Amino acid sequence: LSGLDPAQPYFQGTPTEVRLDQSDADFVDVIHTDTAPTIPNLGFGIRPAIGHIDFYPNGGEQMAGCEKNIISQIVDLDGIWEGTRDFVACNHLRSYKYYSDSIIYPDGFLGYPCGSYDLFQEGNCFPCPEEGCPNMGHYADKFKDKIKNDTLKFYLNTGETRDFPLWRYKITVTLSGKRNVRGYVNVALYGSDGNTRQHQITKGSLSPDNTYTAYIDAEVNVGEVTKVKFLWNNNWINPTFPKLGAATITVEVGQDR
Hints:
The protein is α/β, with parallel strands linked by helices and 257 residues long. The chain folds into 2 domains: 1-165, 3-Layer(aba) Sandwich (Rossmann fold), CATH 3.40.50; 167-253, Lipoxygenase-1. It contains 4 helices and 12 strands; from the N terminus they run ββαβααβαββββββββ. The chain has helices at residues 38-41, 70-74, 80-104, 117-121; strands spanning 2-4, 29-31, 53-57, 112-113, 152-156, 167-177, 181-191, 194-195, 199-206, 211-218, 225-233, 244-253. Strand 7 (181-191) and strand 8 form a beta hairpin. Its EC number is 3.1.1.26.
């Protein structure tokens, strides 16, 4: 049984007989997308973990892409009616959109077990544990026999618009060069199943022999990594033409470690 942002008003804090609960089915998975307090934030979704596994995409409160301005949201790609609904309850409605996307992306929406969304964002819960990570949505039940605790919380990030699934990678870059410079470092991944756009690894002061790490949420599952593209830029014209390279780049895939 899949709960798509179960309601918060009149249900949160009530007995299990009233609301969705683990006892309602052999396996209950829940997607939480609008868990901010109803007063004053108008959050429609229940906050506590109530299933066998509970997913909190983007932290469970503010969904990526729902912070658009009024005009751009109402004049939506899916039409004015859909855009108006999104303006009124964008976060709440994301749950069914994630679920429908999950049907066509069996390897997408990987949820990482973590103590909080902040810890997840910092990379403390990467990569997946040995038993793997569940896929939020239609294929969550593949994880049914791997549950060890009564209640499990899983975190992930999503795209701002369809298609919503993202795939998480840990990128570690050790720089090479002769002197410190300022600027930014971008990396793009190339693989057997596709390529990513450029993702920023770090910016500011760049020092040769230093190592920089970033966790990126890529818009495509590249499969087996075949090539990594490295780019750095110092943001302004420098008459000394400084040079900077990558001594090593390490890519770690969250799903299979």
